[in-house]
Amino acid sequence: KTIAVVGCPFSGGQPRVGVDKGPIHLVEAGLLTQLKELGWNVQFDGHHQFEEISAADDPPIGKLRNPRFVSRVTKAVAEAVGGHAKKGQLPLTLGGDHSLAMGTISGTLDTYPDACVIWIDAHADINTAETTDSGNIHGMPVSFLMGLGSKVPEFSWVKSGLRPDSIVYIGLRDVDAGEKRILKENNIKAFSMHEVDKYGIGKVVEMALDYVNPKRDRPIHLSFDVDALDPTVAPSTGTPVRGGLTFREGHYICEAIYETGLLVALDLMEVNPSLEDEESVKQTVAVGCSLVRAALGETLL
Ligand SMILES: N[C@@H](CC/C=C/[B-](O)(O)O)C(=O)O
Ligand SMILES: [Mn+2]
Ligand SMILES: [Mn+2]
Question: Residue 124 CA to chain centroid, in angstroms?
Answer without folding.
Answer: 11
